[in-house]
Amino acid sequence: FDIYMEYKDQVRIQVSVATMNHELARIMEPRVASPEARIGIIREAKNIGLTAGIIIAPVMPPLRIRPKLPRTWRRL
C-alpha cells in the first residue's frame, strides 16, 4: 500500500465480493483471491488510514434464496 499512502487523500481502495460461499466463489471466479482474503485487504487498507470499501455485486445467492443476507452485509 506504500504508493497509495502517498496519495491517500486522492484514492479509494475497493474490492468486489459476490459471495462468502467458498465453493460458489471458486466456481464464479476461479483464479481470484478468496472472499476472506479480499476482506482482509480492505481491513489492512483501513487500518493504515486509507479510504476503503467493499463492492457487493452481484449478490450470490440472490436475496430470494438467502433472505438473511443483509445481516452478513452489516458484518462487512
UniProtKB/TrEMBL annotation:
<keyword id="KW-0411">Iron-sulfur</keyword>
<dbReference type="GO" id="GO:0046872">
    <property type="term" value="F:metal ion binding"/>
</dbReference>
<dbReference type="InterPro" id="IPR040086">
    <property type="entry name" value="MJ0683-like"/>
</dbReference>
<dbReference type="GO" id="GO:0051536">
    <property type="term" value="F:iron-sulfur cluster binding"/>
</dbReference>
<keyword id="KW-0479">Metal-binding</keyword>
<protein>
    <submittedName>
        <fullName>Radical SAM domain protein</fullName>
    </submittedName>
</protein>
<keyword id="KW-0408">Iron</keyword>
